[in-house]
Amino acid sequence: MMHTIVVGAGIAGITAARLLHAAGQRVVVLEARDRIGGRIRTDRTAGFSVDRGASWIHGLTGNPLTGLVSALGMETREFTVGSFQAGGRPIADYDESQRLLDEDATRQWTADVDTADELFQLTIAASGHDESYADAAERTLAATGWEPERTERVRAFYRHRTEEQCGAEVEQVAAHALDEDTIEGDEVIFPGGYDVLPRTLAEGLDIRLGMTVTAISRSATGVRVDTEHESFDAAHVIVTVPLGVLKAGAIEFTPALPDAVAGPIARLGMGVFNKVFLQFPSRFWQDDVYAIRQHGRAGVPWHSWYDVSVVSGKPMLLTFAGGAWGQEIEQKTDKEVVSSVLGSLRKIYGESVPGPVAHWITRWGTDPLALGSYSYVAVGSSHDDHDALAEPVDGVLHFAGEATCGHEPATVHGALQSGHRAAERILGSPISLAELTRGLNPSNGRLR
Predict the structure, then answer these.
(1) Poorest-confidence range of 13-22, 53-62, 264-273?
(2) CB half-sphere exposure, 234, CA atoms < 13 A
């Protein structure tokens, strides 16, 4: 009987498996997809990297990914607006009539967000777990005494913040949902593709692709993991499937999960956040901007476009669809989605905006092996639910993944830390993250 079975070959599963393997355990990773990486997915069909899933390291300071990526020789580019921010880097801001804000108006806008956020923190501190981000935002905005247009801009900013950070509507998100959402240091993206990370770390591991786990039973002596065609026995199992898959009951647990774990699964939310990449024949937007942003009510349904030309070397914009709009575009054809995005861009830049020469559209909500993009603290839940989900069950069943990391949910580094935690719990002793790169050669940002 093997020591540990890991369900899922995303970054949490690969981290746990590699650390356990380094400690001398016999580990097998069961992955339902025909690839590794999970919600890290790099598309190279165009001859350059398009990250359909995770794209950023959110904050280099104190982040375990920083040293790891450096040790693996992965190429990075600074791009510090991966988290939804009002300013901080050059952003082309447009008002409700599609007029570009001048320097004074831009300074006023970013100052308004700073002022509102200071008030917002006081409001949130006085909020309970059953209050929504929307309710807390309205109380905050009412206290500013600003005129309607000024208030509406910040209101829209908060709505878009939860759509992007949580993949959910502002009314669904708990007031405390973004308490831990602090970015320390610059953010970076990967010209060579993010999946270099999991694919390099997977070297030498026993990973079985196309193995969909359907049931897990546990006893005092260990676990049995059933796939569609085969069963495996082990002393421990680490389940790293996305929260959406757990919420859908895709894996049958016997005995049933205790309330201490089942409760967090039910209470936490799984957001939908999709990407639309458009490659253009030529550049029509300003040089040296990180993003283009449409303010106020005019920013529905598309409000922000990110210049990701640095990755491909081609004129490319990336826009996002989160929450209800993210779910809605999954029911539309590619042609309908592209036409909708172009309609918004042409309101800003005019009818001369050309049609794209290529596009990429994600649909994570209807992906049966994800059923969403990442977790969030829904109304009625708390950050403690993330960590409670990771508590071992009967000493043999463990959960890992971004949804189990209370201080860094919805991030790659949160997933990595959760895999590290699960490995240490199984080993019963600390193990250094440095073991992840022992014996690996730097990749120079490319797959060998």
Answers:
(1) 53-62
(2) 25
Rg of the chain's alpha carbons, rounded to an integer?
22
Unique residue bearing structure tokens 């999970």: 38
- Domain ranges for the chain, please list them: 2-35+195-267+379-436
Interval 111-137: pLDDT, tens: 999 999 999 999 999 998 899 999 999
CATH class of 2-35+195-267+379-436: alpha beta
373: tokens are 């993009």
Residue 447 in this model has a pLDDT that exceeds 50: no
Report the C-alpha gap between 177 and 213 in whole angstroms: 31
Contact present, 274 and 326 (Cβ < 8 Å) = yes
Over the stretch 417-431, which tens digit does the pLDDT of each residue have?
999 999 999 999 999
